[in-house]
Structures are given as structure tokens and as C-alpha cells.
């Protein structure tokens, strides 16, 4: 299975931190956000990774290179202007191939075991990792009913973690368009073509300087505890 890391965003909510540094290269506990994902992918035995770039792309490419230092083979899909999630994936399809792939937003932190996702057989068009709603997104995104993602949220909601497995066919209509992931997910969910699971481990959407600082403190605290 190949993986794709989404790293093209401007990071407006992170300014001024992202004026000179792309958001994926912001660090917590001494390691950049995107490095955590690359390390976890390598540990899980995933060797081929595609990264989309736009804002300060050269900084990301200079930092990661061809992936050798992570024991990975890294390819880049550059966007002249950010195409959003679905558009970015469609733009990279020539690198991803025809098989289901793992898609991860590089501005999240999660301790999910990537290796546990590899054996999943994609029965539908996508499989989403959902998490408890964070304080900044209490309304959630979707509900989960008997293993299927639903738009009927009367029984409570969960938040899409930014991690999922997708079939390439999901992105055909996003080709050469600026399109959000939700725009391709909604019709698939309505047609009951999206499965999901509720992950209850540690997860954070590192979308603001405050949450970046929170995660940094938390990881340093965990690291300190582990060293005693």
C-alpha cells in the first residue's frame, strides 16, 4: 500500500509561524510534524510515499529529499496553487496508481498504529478513522453506524481524523479541480460506500499556534515520564 501526505496548505491560522516555515515542518518535542508521519509509515512497512506541495515547497523537499533518511521512497506532487484535499489527491493520481492508498493530513498528530490499518480490505470506496470531537469542533463531522459512516447525526457525531484509506475512483471527478475532500466523500457516504472505525487514542489537529504549543508540552511531558 502506498501513502500520501497532504502538505500543500498555506497554514493561515498558524501565521506568523508559517510565513517562513511550511506548517508540516513546524516541530513538537524537537521533531517536525511531517517527520512523525514519515517515521510511523516506515515503521509500519510502508515504503512508497507521495507528498503534495505548494506553499514553500522547496523547504519541504530540501528537508525530506528522496526519503532515504527515513528508509522511504518519496515522490512529490507540486501544485502551482493549492488544490485543496480532493484536488490535490487527483493531481497526484499518476504517482499513487490504481490500488487503495493511505491518506494522512500532515498537520495532525495521532498515535494510531499504522500497521494495523494495512491489512484492512477496502470493501467500499473509503475507510475513515474517526475520533472524539475536540473542543474546537464539537459539532463533529459524521456518525458511525455498524461500521459505516453516516450523515444521520441524530445519535451523536465523531470527527474525521485526517487519516483514511481511499480507492482512487473516489477522485475521478476532482481531476484538475480545486475540490475539498468532503465534496467527494458526501455522495459516497450517501450511497453507503464509506466504512469507518472509532479510534480512541491520542489525536490532535495541530491547526493553531496554541494547539501546537499544547501538543509540544504534552509530548515533552510524556517523554520526560518515559525517561524516569
Can you offer a commentary on this structure?
With 228 residues, this protein is of the alpha/beta class. The chain has one domain (3-219): Spore Coat Polysaccharide Biosynthesis Protein SpsA, Chain A, CATH 3.90.550. It has helices at residues 33-43, 57-64, 84-91, 93-96, 181-190, 209-226, and strands spanning 3-6, 27-28, 31-32, 48-53, 73-78, 101-105, 108-110, 126-131, 143-145, 148-150, 159-166, 194-198, 203-205. The strands form 4 sheets. It has a 7-stranded mixed β-sheet with strand order 5-4-1-6-11-8-12, with helices on both faces. A hairpin with a 2-residue loop joins strand 2 (27-28) and strand 3. The longest helix has 18 residues, at 209-226. The relative contact order is 0.18.
User: What's the total helix number?
Assistant: 6
Q: What is the radius of gyration? A: 17 Å
CATH fold node name:
Spore Coat Polysaccharide Biosynthesis Protein SpsA, Chain A
Q: How many beta-strand runs? A: 13
Report the sheet with the most strands, covering strand number, pairing sense and barrel closure.
7 strands, mixed
What are the secondary-structure elements, in order, as H or E? EEEHEHEHHEEEEEEHEEH
Shape: globular
Strand composition percent: 15-25%
Q: What number of structural domains do the residues give?
A: 1
Calculate the terminal CA-CA distance, rounded to whole Å. Answer: 38 Å
Helicity range of the residues? 25-40%
Proper CATH architecture: Alpha-Beta Complex
| Widest sheet: strand ordering | 5-4-1-6-11-8-12
Highest-level CATH class: Alpha Beta
| Mean pLDDT level | 92
Low-confidence stretches: none
CATH superfamily: Spore Coat Polysaccharide Biosynthesis Protein SpsA, Chain A
Structural class computed from helices and strand pairing: alpha/beta
